[in-house]
Amino acid sequence: MKKPRKLILILLIAALLPSGALLAPPWQLVFVKQGIRVSKRSGPNSLLEFMARGRVNASILKILSVIHDVNSYGKWVPRNRETRILRRVSDTELIFYQANKGFWPVSDRDFVGRAVLRPDEKNKIVTMVVRNIPGARPVYSGRVRMPRVHSIWTLKSLGKNKTLVNLYVYADPAGWLPKWIVNWASKDVPFDLIRNLRRRVTQVDRVNAAFLRKYGKYADWH
Questions:
Q1: What is the pTM of this model?
Q2: 122 exposure class (CB count in 10 Å sphere: 0-12, 13-18, 19+)
Q3: Residues in contact with 19: Cβ distance below 8 Å, sequence separation at least 6, in sequence order
Q4: pLDDT digits (tens, 9 = 90+) for 130-187
Q5: Beta bridge partners of 109
Q6: Which residues of 196-210 are buried (b: 16+ CB within 10 A; e: fewer)?
Q7: CA distance 203 to 186
Q8: Domains present along the chain, CATH in parentheses
């Protein structure tokens, strides 16, 4: 990637990070595996923020069709119990409910989230920003509502059917779990998501017609 484009990508990610993130400690490398680089830094409430970066051999359009299809998260998102769309606000915004399986004896965690697509047509970068919506739905029995969830998918073409994927993740599971256990368990989440995304895009033969009509312009972003 040319240096000016790399700088634009870094600045775009920084602009989308939580308020005060530019004053946060620098990212520290956790590990590199299967070409996926995972870093960490201190976040709110003594929990860690994680960032993963890796190449996916698929177009921006195809990757976007996977990560925006929240109803199919059960096919590739780790420990997904259920995900369903509650409301489509527009072609670039939707409200959804997601529940994740807990490890025994930990209860399932859930949240109501807002996913927003933010295309940067000039630089041909697409981001999908997810934030939880506190108090949006009653808490379900047997599940713990997560007080804060924030993730950012950033997609930048590296050429035909090659995309650089950056994933920022911060999640507070609440409950009685010690913070060190939460941080230890969370370090693999962004890696697993990009690794599973690589597999999932190979299982999707083609982008469905309805999605193509809405987002077909991204097909030429390479």
A1: 0.86
A2: exposed
A3: none
A4: 999 999 889 999 999 999 999 999 999 998 899 999 999 999 999 888 899 999 989 9
A5: 100, 144
A6: ebbebbeebeebeee
A7: 26
A8: 37-203 (3.30.530.20)
